[in-house]
Amino acid sequence: MSHLGRQGRDLGQLPPCPKLAPSLVGECTHICVCLQWDLFRLPDLESYDAMLARIFKQELERIVSRYECYRAALLREKERRTHLNC
Q1: Calpha distance 49→52 (Å, rounded)
Q2: Domain count of the chain?
Q3: pTM of the model as a whole
Q4: What is the domain extent for residue 36?
Q5: Taking burial as the number of CB atoms within 10 A of a residue's CB, which of 28, 44, 56, 77 is the most buried?
């Protein structure tokens, strides 16, 4: 089944979801203006939104995990030094 956009374009094949490099996140306004939003159907936009939310959550989990690892090492070192000073 083919879906036609406002300009009569076949939207059966959506363009791939844009890949954003972390350095481009600050340039979101420019990227958002350049995207041709009318090429995307609402269900596709909702799907991309859910996908980006999952990616965001996974990235946050990785960041927190790295800090937890660092914090655990820091606490071990504090404990080691505390016992050395006793």
Answers
A1: 5
A2: 2
A3: 0.50
A4: 1-40
A5: 44
